[in-house]
Design a protein that fits this description.
The structure is a single chain. This protein is α/β, with parallel strands linked by helices. Helices cover about 40% and strands about 15% of the residues. The protein has ten helices and ten strands. Helix 1 packs across helix 2 (about 35-40). The chain is globular, with a radius of gyration of 18 Å.
Length: about 280
């Protein structure tokens, strides 16, 4: 027993999936969305990551998710802050998060198109505005390691530099995207651990998946979707680090591009539950 007599808190993060995966899985299986939601709930997920767009019917979505027993684990959206330093276009997303009860929003700030120093400064200005606005509404703003060579947050060094400029900024740790940039996710975790508020559990397969279109790394390596825990990403080690860090937020299974989303979701959630219970 520890000297202070206090036992470490149990590792009990909440499981989540991408809402888009459930929608795609329902289409693939030709079943109603409500049935797909029931299945994913029965496999242990209690949250969904949802993409925000101006066209999103926030009220209807919130009602449907609450009826199925789900919370919104994160509301994410795509922007072009590198060309627009005002940042105010993200304010409706913050308001939508409040209505949906989501404590975290993730922003994909845009992609480099020209002068990287100038565009970086524009992004910092925009993100600062959004972070201040969100903090006033008690919503956490995060960025992730986005798997695109033109992304200003594709490496942990870029994210760290952005966090140093923005004290209110947080991190969504995507376990599989550092592999895109040929970085060690364990090194990235140690560098970013103090800012992590959300986790995308993404594994990668280097074995071709029939009929699936792969994501290509800049070096030409083809990466395919994979149930969490079955690919080439050191997921067990990452879960161990999360446990040692006392992480209690959401763990969101991610495998965009899978041609069998429901089966993959079930396998991912089962593996993640087993790791939590170790």
């Amino acid at each position: 027993m520890p000297q202070n007599g206090i036992l470490p808190s149990a590792f009990s993060p909440k499981l989540s999936v991408f809402y888009a995966h459930i929608q795609e899985g329902a289409r693939q299986k030709e079943i109603p969305l409500e049935e797909a939601l029931e299945l994913v709930y029965s496999w242990g997920a209690r949250g969904v990551d949802v993409e925000y767009t101006p066209q999103l019917d926030v009220s209807a979505l919130g009602k449907a998710l609450r009826s199925a027993g789900f919370s919104v684990s994160c509301l994410y959206g795509f922007y072009d802050f590198l060309q627009d330093p005002r940042g105010e276009k993200a304010f409706p997303q913050i308001q939508a998060a409040l209505e949906l009860g989501a404590g975290t929003v993730m922003l994909i700030p845009g992609f480099y198109k020209g002068d990287r120093e100038q565009e970086w400064n524009s992004m910092v200005a925009a993100m600062d505005t959004v972070c201040q606005y969100a903090a006033n509404h008690k919503v956490a703003v995060a960025v992730e390691d986005f798997d695109h060579s033109a992304s200003p947050t594709s490496t942990w060094e870029q994210i760290q530099a952005l966090c140093q400029s923005l004290p209110l900024l947080n991190v969504t740790f995507d376990t599989g995207n550092f592999f895109y940039s040929q970085e060690d996710p364990l090194t990235a975790f140690h560098a970013l651990k103090d800012r992590i508020v959300h986790v995308h559990c993404k594994d990668r397969s280097l074995q071709p998946v029939p009929c699936e279109t792969p994501t290509l790394r800049p070096d030409g390596t083809a990466m395919f979707s994979s149930p969490v825990g079955t690919g080439c990403i050191p997921m067990k080690e990452i879960f161990s680090l999360l446990r040692s860090q006392g992480y209690q937020g959401y763990l969101t299974a991610e495998h965009f591009g899978s041609l069998c989303q429901m089966e993959t979701l079930q396998k991912s959630l089962q593996w993640m539950q087993e790791q939590i219970q170790l």
